[in-house]
Amino acid sequence: MSLMTVNEVAAFLGVQDVRVERLERESLLISKEKDTDGKPLFDSADVERYKTLAERLGGI
């Protein structure tokens, strides 16, 4: 399992950091851990699956 920060997820999905944090708050993208600053960390495989699903549904 490789963990990604909010910034890395935002870059991968092509969205702003705020959008990633909102997806996590709404439980659309589940974080695995929190970093030392309390920011969520995401499993890269989960992020890839979310991107695939979002693209199938018409976009992120």
- CATH architecture, please? Orthogonal Bundle
Biggest sheet strand line-up: 1-3-2
Mean model confidence by pLDDT = 94
How many alpha or pi helices? 3
Tally the structural domains.
1
Distance between the termini: 23 Å
The biggest sheet amounts to:
3 strands, antiparallel
| Percent in strands | 5-15%
According to CATH, the fold-level topology is Multidrug-efflux Transporter Regulator, Chain: A, Domain 2
CATH C-level class: Mainly Alpha
Low-pLDDT windows of residues: none
Globally, the shape reads: globular
> Share of helix among residues?
40-55%
The tally of strands reads: 3
Radius of gyration: 11 Å
How is the secondary structure organized here?
Layout: E1 3-4, H1 6-13, H2 17-25, E2 33-34, E3 40-43, H3 44-56
Antiparallel strand pairs: 1-3, 2-3
Helix pairs in contact: 1-2
Essential attributes:
alpha+beta; 3 strands; 50% helix; 60 residues; three-stranded antiparallel β-sheet; DNA-bd_dom_put_sf; single chain; Multidrug-efflux Transporter Regulator, Chain: A, Domain 2; 3 helices; Helix-turn-helix domain-containing protein
